[in-house]
Inverse folding.
């Protein structure tokens, strides 16, 4: 298969200049990396959010033309995937077996810079009460990707109110040590008051502490969140369509 090559995942992460690869790919949880031209198919991070069911979890990166050729060859070498995330422009060139029902269209964003101070940031505290966190998420973000006890979560930060939490969010550590913001949520009754911005600023500051990098994922149609993250200094590095069985 001309041009197709397999790459050791540790070598990939050590040498790649792609920020997503450097920060998000865990070489210890990456059974296979295939490359062709400037495209990559990475079966990696199967266990990121919990125990894997054993099916491949594919990240597909690179120029559409190279990725189309690579995916066509890789489809015969990779078991049927359970999850696929592909650069959004290239979704339609995937093999039929990889074009699973789309579950998300999102930006992966990154910053190396501390955000400007926010007047409400002193109200942010670390939260350890799982019932309080779940209570807010049940109301504000029932489909949250992180919950108390989720794998890889370093801490929860929140803003308390008289009757519970007004805002809450998790900090997850990427394989590189970068901090990844997850499940940032504000109670609907408190929306629009700047709590989400203050909380995100505090999470970003904590995220930067280990290796000077903070990352996050946000849906492309979440305009209020995108405006917040833009003000905090985050910039989009890759836009994905994700799909799963």
């Amino acid at each position: 298969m001309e041009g197709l090559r397999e790459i050791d995942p540790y070598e990939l992460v050590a040498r790649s200049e792609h920020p997503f690869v450097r920060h998000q790919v865990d070489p210890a949880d990456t059974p296979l990396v295939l490359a062709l031209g400037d495209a990559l198919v990475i079966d990696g991070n199967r266990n990121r959010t919990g125990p894997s069911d054993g099916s491949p979890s594919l990240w597909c990166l690179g120029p559409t033309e190279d990725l189309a050729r690579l995916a066509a060859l890789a489809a015969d070498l990779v078991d049927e995937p359970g999850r696929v995330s592909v650069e959004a422009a290239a979704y339609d060139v995937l093999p039929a077996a990889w074009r699973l029902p789309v579950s998300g269209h999102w930006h992966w964003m990154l910053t190396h810079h501390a955000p400007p101070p926010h007047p409400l940031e002193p109200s942010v505290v670390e939260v350890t009460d799982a019932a309080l966190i779940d209570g807010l998420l049940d109301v504000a973000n029932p489909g949250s990707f992180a919950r108390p006890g989720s794998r890889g979560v370093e801490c929860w930060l929140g803003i308390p109110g008289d009757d519970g939490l007004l805002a809450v969010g998790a900090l997850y550590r990427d394989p590189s040590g970068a901090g990844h913001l997850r499940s940032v949520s504000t109670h609907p009754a408190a929306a629009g008051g700047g709590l989400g911005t203050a909380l995100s600023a505090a999470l970003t500051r904590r995220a930067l502490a280990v290796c000077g990098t903070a990352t996050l994922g946000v849906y492309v149609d979440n305009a209020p969140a995108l405006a917040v993250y833009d003000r905090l200094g985050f910039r989009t590095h890759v836009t994905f369509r994700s799909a799963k069985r």
Notes: The longest strand covers residues 102-111. DSSP finds six helices and twelve strands in the chain. Helices lie at 9-15, 19-24, 64-74, 130-140, 195-211, 223-231. The radius of gyration is 19 Å.
